[in-house]
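To: structure desk
From: M.T.
Subject: fold request, one chain
Message: Could you run this one when you get a chance? Sequence is below, nothing fancy, just the single chain.
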Amino acid sequence: MPFPTVHPALRRVVPLVMAILLSACTGGDSPSAATSPPSSVTPTGGATSSEAAVRPFAGLLAIADRGNNRLLVVDPAGKVVWRYPSPSLPPPPDRFYFPDDVFWVHRGRALLVNEEENDVLIEIAYPSGRVLWTYGHAGIAGSAPGYLHQPDDVYPAPGGGVVVADALNCRILFFGPHGKPTRQLGATGNCTHGLPATVGYPNGDTPLPNGDLLLSELNGGYVDEVTSNGNRVWTLRVPGVPVPSDPQRLAGGSYMVVDYERPGRIVRFTRWGKVLWSYGPSSGRGMLDHPSLAVPLPNGLVAVNDDYRHRVLLIDPATDRIVWSYGVADAAGTGPNRLRFPDGLDLLLPGGVVPLHVDFASPLPAAGRP
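Reply: Done. Structure tokens follow.
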């Protein structure tokens, strides 16, 4: 049985790229499940006992295992501590299909998910599996109230509610705290690059603490920072990234985005287009195939979904080495250490800290609202 691997370079990690730590409150739907100390990494072949004690991350990693229509939560040793759906949990209200992204919310008490090709948003309590909120009609695309068409990246929005890139409707849709749409950016069905009036097929909409959004537009290959009203702060075609996906802001004011191609690429850049770091081997074990998201972890490693190679990787930007993986390259499956087109990930630190994005202000989820 294969296990996740850890490379000795992990011990040399220098925090070159720090994520913005946005919340630091205790709690969790089940504190013992969400914040228990993780096990040490189980390395392969020839690692020393001191290397085995190194943790690639603290806390729990949620993975949207899109091709297997499931969510997994794994610890640093690669042990699956929770999965959804599961016979031991309440069933979803409709088919659970094509989970494209997953985000810890309410300080680890729930998970927010967009089922992209199912045209549904769903929030699930952790670890009970209770469905708290849904929006959309399973398998029925549309643009009228109550409908979505290929929703991507549903995030908590600063000030309450959620925001989602309703991709094939070519709009950014905002929901209020009670889970109902309140407004949008873009003109429904007009998929040209023309912010603030139109949005060119958005596939990323990362909220920033100041209320701005980082957008990626497939039509034209743009990355934009916009205000909450859609006014452009800056817009850019990132060098070497013709198919941008899911841009992120780093501490210090730089940005990170992936190129959703084969071979794929991770690029850290400035708003003026200067490339600060790039990772994109053209062959071998390190090559990426359609990576959809890369995020800097608080320890300086970069986590990435390597979608078409069926794995989640941690890369040390100081050495450009893969130092941890869940999933085996080019070997899709459902068993231990196996994924199939993983498309989303998020980290929950001990103490209920959600370090990689804005979280809801309330630590307690409520049924019927996000």
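Reply (cont.): Confidence is low (pLDDT under 50) at residues 1-53. Let me know if you need anything else for the meeting.
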